[in-house]
Amino acid sequence: MQQVISVWVRDPRIQKNDFWHAYMDYEICLHVSTTAEKIVSLMLFPCSNCVAAVSCFQTNSVFFTKKTSRVRRRFSEFVWLRQKLQENSLLLLQLPHLPPKNPFFSLNNAQQVADRMKGLQRFLEKILQSNLVLSDSCLHLFLQSQLSISKMEACVAGKTSFTVAQAVQSCGLRRFHSEEDLQRDLSVFCDSDSDSSECRDPGHKTRELTLNKSRSAATLDLRGTCQEEMLS
């Protein structure tokens, strides 16, 4: 069976660590289909904020088990990915370059943001055409999980209670480590522009989410980490 891989980078957002420190991340949309589904794959995500036409690549092997994913990554994580892929390829492959670091890069400069975003898309387009890169677990965790760099490295090294496949399949489902994580999520939820009854009655939301905490420790660890990364 052949796979058609569609990828694009879009939707830059400024994320704040605190009052003084901020960074920008980007949404990576990935869709994997068979050759017959290629045209349909272009319709899965609205493309009003896409930086370029969706790029499709056909492979002769099945590399992705998760059909559709959306994750957010910052530039420093792209730098980490390239370094890991280059190390793991044992210099058998010369990887494409990322957009150059600009010491004068401004989060509020629309042209600079657009240029970087296009460069990141070109980077993904090129590496996804290499079977050697496609077989690397770091790439799959980068594209289809919200694990942090340290968690991705630990997972690839077999030092986590979950496998790479479990990380890919489970990430994005809402689970919480503790009451603190639960309250932090509620705080973010109610600080948004939502005018739902759940914000007006946070106790209801707390009770509802608390019922979902009766999973195994390994699943809680994995899915809670994904949620933490989405909120960070």
Automatic annotation (TrEMBL):
GO molecular function annotation: phosphatidylinositol phosphate binding
Alphabetical list of Gene3D superfamilies matching this protein: Phox-like domain
Broad class of the protein's primary localization: cytoplasm
Cellular component terms per the entry's GO annotation: endosome
Superkingdom in the source lineage: Eukaryota
Key words of the record: Cytoplasm, Endosome, Lipid-binding, Membrane, Protein transport, Transport
GO biological process: cilium assembly; intracellular protein transport; vesicle organization
Compartments it resides in: Cytoplasm; Endomembrane system; Endosome
UniProt key word Ribonucleoprotein: no
Pfam families named in the record: PX
InterPro entries: PX_dom, PX_dom_sf, SNX10/11
TM ranges: none
PX domain segment(s): 1-149
Topological type in the membrane: Peripheral membrane protein
Similarity-based family: Belongs to the sorting nexin family.
Name of this protein: Sorting nexin 10b
